[in-house]
Amino acid sequence: MRGAKEQTYRYESVYIIIKKQTLPEQIIGKIAAEENVEPENLELQLQRYVSTDAIQDLANHRNDAWRLQFETPNHVVEITGNGTVLIDGQ
């Protein structure tokens, strides 16, 4: 192939990292949404009202036939084994 030019292609890799939120992070996110603030601006320490380690242990449990309800000063939080997080029933 006379006169043919060599073509070089440059590909850039794009990596997308999707971090799955822990159940305690989901709870904080839902409470923050209820209060119309960003989660990092929420003035609530979840650990003061429930063991976040216990919540995560429940979330990691093979059996999803469980339900946990607890209260914070302004909300009633209910979580279930299928991943549902309800704040004040919603």
From TrEMBL:
Protein name stated in the entry: Halobacterial output domain-containing protein
Species whose genome carries this gene: Halorubrum distributum
Halobacterial output domain location: 21-88
InterPro entries, sorted: HalOD1
